Amino acid sequence: MSKNIKLVHPRDQITEVISRIYKRGMTTTSGGNISIIDDDGNIWVTPSAIDKGSLRSSDIICVQKDGTVVGKHKPSSEFPFHKAIYEARPDIKSVIHAHPPALVSFSIVRQIPNTNIISQAKHICGPIGYADYRLPGSEDLGEVIAEEFKKGYKAIIMENHGTVLGGSDLTDAYERFEALEFCASTIIYGSQIGTPKYLTDQQIDEFEAQATGVLPEMKTTTYPSYEVEKRLEICNIVKRSCQQGLMISSYGTVSMRLKGNDFLITPTGINRWDIDLEDIVQIKDGKREEGKTPSRATWVHQEIYNRNPNVNSIIMTQSPYLMAFGVTGEYLNVRTIPESWIFLQDIDFVKYGNHFRKNNNSEIVDNCPTALIIENDSVIVTGDKLLQTFDYLEVAEFSAKSIVLGHSLGEMVPINDEQVEDLRMKFLA
């Protein structure tokens, strides 16, 4: 989907985003609905009782400002609350409603997830409202939801129902939706292995205050063919990470070394699903490509490349099961199966704030381990080829998931020291 969504028809925006939501397992065939209100006051909305896994642009319904319905299906049964939101909040231009499992868990225990669980979510999601239960599809439901939106909320937990979120456009609404479900998942998974810890508002403000684009700009930039290949590789891995739930729209950095200590890195402030070749930022001789703002984690990547000549690619991201360990501080023992230990050995853990540039923390950049978890922030995975690094990330997330899921069965029995030594001799000697 084009980053300039004003150039994409509402029908196509809606089908793209509902496809992402369905494929990520955040709604069912029959559940969830999306709408966009255009500049003429017409509301484009998903149809009622049509498979969310195979929606086409031609399936999207237009409810015109005068109430005329244009399309071959009925509009979503939840259309009344979409309309009520737009009437209550003229700044809201898109609405997403769905039943993602983690947020439904919060809705049925009647709690609101604390978005201070990770660094950027508070600012993306904003404060979270709560709407009492009303009959689905009813005018009453529209009224209670609209009342919450009138209070200034853009994200609402719907009691025993799910969630509804609004945004300045569909990309904004989806980033909020995805970040909130990620927070909910991380809290739930973390609670299975320990006690989640939350960041203070001051810690989050310090994260947000980190300067971006502090590197000076280079005057001219050349694009040799081998670099174009690497840009494509980065874009493909970012999209694959998003598709597999290893990265979310609002957070995730990927980089690849070029020659010497020069490298390519993803930008800040651009939805990860929509990153394109031209968005990737070249860092050369300590300078950034003109007119582009690289990730705020650029300094970490730069120092890893400077001090670790064998590292040629880095992924810094948030994935739910790894972050369950990141928010609890519980030790992630990857002596689960041979593959996990061979690829990862031990995963280090550093305190929140040590990844800020002002600290220039040697735990992160000196002798960088294959994988490292930063408290309440992210996981950093390093390797040679980017596909290899992505494989390490997958293995780490699968290992974390196995431990979280296995926790209810009993105490983990790791591979013992003798078995580890056998692995070391056979695969690492």
UniProtKB/TrEMBL annotation:
Gene Ontology process terms (BP): pentose catabolic process
GO-annotated molecular function: aldehyde-lyase activity; metal ion binding
Q: Which residues form a coiled coil?
A: none
Q: Which SUPFAM superfamilies match?
A: AraD/HMP-PK domain-like
Name assigned to this protein = L-fuculose-phosphate aldolase
Identify the GO cellular component terms for this protein: cytosol
Entry-linked Pfam families? Aldolase_II
Keywords associated with the record:
Lyase, Metal-binding
InterPro entries annotated for this entry? Answer: Aldolase_class_II_sugar_metab, Aldolase_II/adducin_N, Aldolase_II/adducin_N_sf
Q: Which residues form the Class II aldolase/adducin N-terminal domain?
A: 12-188, 232-404
On whether Metal-binding is a keyword of this UniProt record, the answer is yes
Q: Does the keyword Lyase apply?
A: yes
